[in-house]
């Protein structure tokens, strides 16, 4: 939800921290702040709004004070920085992180929610502490300063380990989800971090080390990273990385190498990350498919800690996810049930555990998450495991919590997705779900190797089809300019086209801030058709006529129904489908693709449409208002 960066090394920390924040801004952009330890002093600056506001403030300070770093505050080699998505307390200057204790020596930044903050705040206020913000984070700053004072009073010397010890004491008092980073002016050269149910990774450099919510923050400097476990404290200096648990017992993380480089997290000439990520989809699909089919025709997942015998015993599947990932799960249901004949339900993660779902050892729960940190999905996963169900994760982020806690993982190899709106994550999640369906069918003896290979071959053709589609997408851009003032846009589809309709509407809502709704095309006449007025744009996703002509014909009838009531129809159909031509005010042809796989192509024009309408309306396409890339609170 928030982006966090820490640096300990020999170079000026401020520029490195700001650079890391630029790469993490997708995680939250309500306010930003930094704290640098410089010559035994703590220098902080923070500002509401996007990071650019903080940078402007720093530049003004530099002009006024001739700051050493040229950025308004000193050039000390230790620092922390934060970019916020507000939870406790509005997005104001005073609620921006870092937060400091009264002595001004300690600075703390935080991602997550401290659930017992009201109790802690009450206790601290009773002890005479004056709060300067409305945040839960400030409690941690006061508690850390108090722990340091007590330890020093007990005779402990200032050292990096003292900072870690104090942080351990603080963590034992906190409930909820948190990543915390802290520095202390009296302990220069050290940054301490702590995590519970919230992301934190370590970057291992040469004579410098990093802490961050996500490897993107330090990828320019090092690709060697350490994944921390749950409830761990990490202390970095320029030359050391020490990990303990909350009781101070030595612990270890898991080393990993990041297999993409800094350019993957840059715009590369595009106006928006989202447009770049849309164009990257053919490659992302190809990468996700790479090496999935062995020479003897077996589908390979990544980490599998579920035996084939257990997979054969699965009698029910739940797919659980949020937002766009949930829509990919809705598509997956059609393929998985068709290929495996196992009953499959799709649930919103935020609803799943509260309705007491019936789960047992023979239930397979598939959780889908690009970030691997979405709290609703993580809590659903834990609920499933408590009920003894097996959990299989589809995830794009190595080292994140969701795959780590799952029994099996299929990683999508989409590379970093920076734009808040999911694009390549969606398509690669679809590919992953198809592979899971095929794998289950294979393990259970329902599909022969040649049948599996035939579907995989169809999947391998998709990247080329998408390149061709993206090469002739200009008319969709023109259409976007025509639709930018529409008061409402409706999307209809049947079968796998229904989740595509929902996804198209979600994209338009989140990027263009327009009213948009997706409907099952057959459901329209049961109520929503009343929304249609003269000129209402209705985007219709038409299934292939090949093999399922009844399905195709039903959607064509639905198009006629809305058109008869004045709708302006924008039809997405496969090349050569002449039956839709008389009813389409605007026709977008997509390459021919088997029905179950069709969302891999029909979604793409909707992504382009939403991004272009948002841009035409003057919105920030990558960072829509009120949102953040990964939602690490429930
Ligand atoms: O990281 P996750 O895949 O778990 O995120 C789930 C949703 O928050 C996410 O897909 C969201 O709906 C997208 N921003 C929509 O474009």
Describe the structure.
The protein is of the alpha/beta class and 634 residues long. It has three domains: 3-259, Aminohydrolase, N-terminal nucleophile (Ntn) domain (Glutamine Phosphoribosylpyrophosphate, subunit 1, domain 1); 273-465, Rossmann fold, CATH 3.40.50.10490; 474-616, Glucose-6-phosphate isomerase like protein, domain 1 (Rossmann fold). Helices cover 36% and strands 22% of the residues. It contains 18 helices and 25 strands. An eight-stranded antiparallel beta sheet has the order 3-2-4-1-10-9-11-14, with helices on one face. A six-stranded antiparallel beta sheet has the order 5-6-7-8-12-13, with helices on one face. A six-stranded mixed beta sheet has the order 15-20-19-18-16-17, sandwiched between helices. A hairpin with a 2-residue loop joins strand 2 and strand 3 (41-48). The longest helix has 23 residues, at 449-471. The N and C termini lie close together (11 Å). The site of 5-amino-5-deoxy-1-O-phosphono-D-mannitol has 17 residues, from helix 9 and helix 16.
């Amino acid at each position: 939800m928030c982006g966090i960066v820490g640096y300990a090394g020999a170079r000026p920390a401020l520029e490195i921290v700001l650079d890391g924040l630029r790469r993490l801004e997708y995680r939250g952009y309500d306010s930003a702040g930094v704290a640098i330890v410089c010559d035994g002093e703590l220098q902080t600056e923070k500002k509401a709004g996007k990071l650019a506001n903080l940078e402007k403030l720093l530049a003004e300070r530099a002009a006024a004070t001739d700051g050493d770093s040229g950025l308004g505050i000193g050039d000390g080699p230790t620092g922390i920085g934060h970019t916020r998505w507000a939870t406790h307390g509005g997005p104001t200057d005073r609620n921006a992180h870092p937060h400091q204790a009264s002595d001004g020596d300690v600075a703390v930044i935080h991602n997550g929610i401290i659930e017992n903050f009201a109790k802690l705040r009450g206790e601290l206020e009773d002890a005479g502490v004056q709060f300067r913000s409305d945040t839960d984070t400030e409690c941690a700053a006061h508690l850390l300063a108090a722990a340091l004072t007590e330890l020093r009073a007990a005779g402990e010397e200032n050292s990096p380990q003292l900072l870690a010890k104090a942080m351990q004491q603080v963590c034992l008092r906190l409930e909820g989800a948190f990543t915390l980073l802290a520095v202390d002016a009296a302990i220069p050269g050290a940054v301490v971090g702590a995590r519970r149910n919230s992301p934190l990774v370590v970057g291992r450099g040469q004579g410098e080390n990093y802490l961050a919510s996500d490897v993107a923050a330090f990828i320019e400097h090092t690709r060697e990273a350490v994944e921390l476990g749950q409830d761990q404290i990490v202390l970095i200096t320029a030359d050391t990385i020490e990990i303990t648990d909350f009781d101070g017992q030595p612990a270890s993380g898991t080393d990993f190498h990041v297999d993409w480089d800094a350019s993957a997290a840059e715009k590369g000439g595009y106006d928006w990350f989202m447009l770049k990520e849309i164009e990257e989809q053919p490659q992302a699909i190809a990468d996700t498919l790479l090496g999935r089919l062995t020479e003897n025709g077996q589908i390979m997942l990544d980490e599998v800690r579920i035996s084939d015998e257990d997979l054969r015993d699965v009698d029910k599947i739940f797919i659980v996810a949020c937002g766009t990932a949930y829509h990919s799960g809705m598509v997956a249901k059609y393929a998985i049930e068709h290929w495996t004949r196992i009953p499959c339900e799709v649930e919103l993660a935020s609803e799943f555990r509260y309705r007491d779902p019936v789960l047992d050892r023979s239930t397979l729960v598939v959780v889908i998450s690009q970030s691997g940190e979405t709290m609703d999905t993580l809590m659903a996963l834990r609920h499933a495991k408590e009920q003894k169900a097996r959990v299989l994760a589809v995830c794009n982020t190595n080292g994140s919590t969701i795959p780590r806690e799952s029994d099996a993982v299929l990683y999508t190899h989409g590379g970093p997705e920076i734009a808040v709106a999911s694009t390549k994550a969606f398509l690669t999640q679809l590919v992953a779900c198809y592979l899971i369906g095929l794998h289950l069918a294979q393990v259970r003896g329902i599909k022969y190797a040649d049948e599996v290979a035939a579907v995989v071959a169809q999947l391998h053709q998709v990247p080329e089809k998408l390149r061709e589609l993206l090469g002739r997408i200009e008319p969709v851009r023109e259409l976007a300019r025509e639709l930018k003032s529409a008061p409402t846009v409706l999307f209809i589809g049947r079968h796998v086209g229904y989740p595509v309709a929902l996804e198209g509407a979600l994209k338009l809502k989140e990027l263009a801030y327009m009213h948009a709704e997706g409907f099952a095309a057959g459901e329209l006449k049961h109520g929503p058709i009343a929304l249609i007025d003269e000129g209402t744009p209705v985007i219709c996703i038409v299934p292939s006529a090949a093999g399922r002509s009844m399905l195709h014909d039903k959607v064509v009838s639905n198009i006629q129904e809305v058109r008869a009531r004045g709708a302006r129809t924008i039809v997405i159909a496969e090349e050569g489908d002449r039956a839709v031509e008389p009813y389409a005010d605007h026709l977008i042809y997509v390459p021919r693709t088997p029905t179950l796989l069709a969302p891999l192509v029909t979604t793409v024009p909707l992504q382009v449409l939403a991004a272009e309408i948002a841009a035409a309306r003057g919105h920030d396409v990558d960072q829509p208002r009120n949102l953040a890339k990964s939602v690490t609170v429930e």
